[in-house]
Amino acid sequence: MAVLLSGSGRTLDNFHERIEKGSLHAQVQVVISNVSDALGLTKAKNYGYPAFHAQSNDEINTLLQDYDIDIIALAGYLKLYQPPADLARAVLNIHPSLIPSFCGDGFYGSRVHKAVKKRGCMVSGCTVHFANEVYDEGPIIHQQSVALEYDDSPDDIATKVFAAECEAFPEAINRVDSMGIDFFWNRTKG
Predict the structure, then answer these.
(1) Tell me: the pLDDT tens digits for 8-26?
(2) Which residues pair with 143 in a beta bridge?
(3) Percent of the chain surpassing pLDDT 90
(4) Which letter does DSSP use for residue 8 in this model?
(5) What are the start and end residues of each CATH 3.40.50.170 domain in the chain?
(6) Looking at domain 1-88, which of 3.40.190.10, 3.40.50.170, 1.20.140.10, 3.40.630.30 is its CATH number?
(7) Has this prediction a pTM greater than 0.85?
(8) CB atoms within 10 A of CB 177
(9) How far is the C-alpha of 75 from the C-alpha of 93, rounded, in Å?
(10) Confidence grade of residue 160 (pLDDT, cut at 50, 70, 90)
């Protein structure tokens, strides 16, 4: 898989650890960031993964041509990504809420957790889904919920949701590996 990121690489850390333990059935072929000084790029290099900075979709897709990629994991990648045609249905994203709640353009990171707190939700979680040309609208692969307390702050919610993400994203990748990409796209037709 290719991993696209914009920040610290916490999700990349999780992938690497689980691949090493054998619980994530994947290989990271390349890591690309749209942010030149992203900590995630440094981590990728330290893990021994090829790591590149590329800002545009065209630059990213040109880099991907040099690797054997089955899926692309958006791991905290904060831009709308348009993959090459042959990978158009193979882009996975994780969103820090239970879609269809608190999702879409403008809902990311702490904005989601603040909105969850403001609404007084007692449950939040994360959703791993295939990405398409519209934020957070591709077929859902896996969701994981977390219970919230009345006094949880947005930071508390973020901590709980990220712990769920560390379980859910690898699980979703394993499901795609065992069930195939088409299964998920076909199950939401009509």
Answers:
(1) 999 999 999 999 999 999 9
(2) 127
(3) 88
(4) S
(5) 1-88, 95-126+143-190
(6) 3.40.50.170
(7) yes
(8) 15
(9) 7
(10) very high
- Per-residue pLDDT of 78-133, as tens digits, reads 888 999 999 999 999 999 999 999 998 888 889 999 999 999 999 999 999 999 88
The total of other beta-carbon atoms located within 10 Å of residue 65's CB is 8
Report how far residue 72's alpha carbon sits from residue 122's, in angstroms, rounded to the nearest whole number. 32
Tell me the CATH architecture of domain 95-126+143-190: 3-Layer(aba) Sandwich (3.40)
DSSP annotation string for 110-134: HHHHHHHHHHT-SEEEEEEEE--SS
- Beta partners for residue 95, in sequence order: 127
Residue 190's pLDDT is: 52
In Å, how far are 50, 79, 106, 131, 151 from 134, measured between CA atoms? 29, 11, 12, 8, 34
Spatial separation of the C-alpha atoms in residues 162 and 69, rounded to whole Å: 26
Query: Would you please indicate which residues are annotated as catalytic (active-site) residues?
Result: 95
State the Cα–Cα distance between residues 148 and 150, nearest whole angstrom: 7
CA distances from 81 to 10, 55, 181 (A): 20, 10, 18
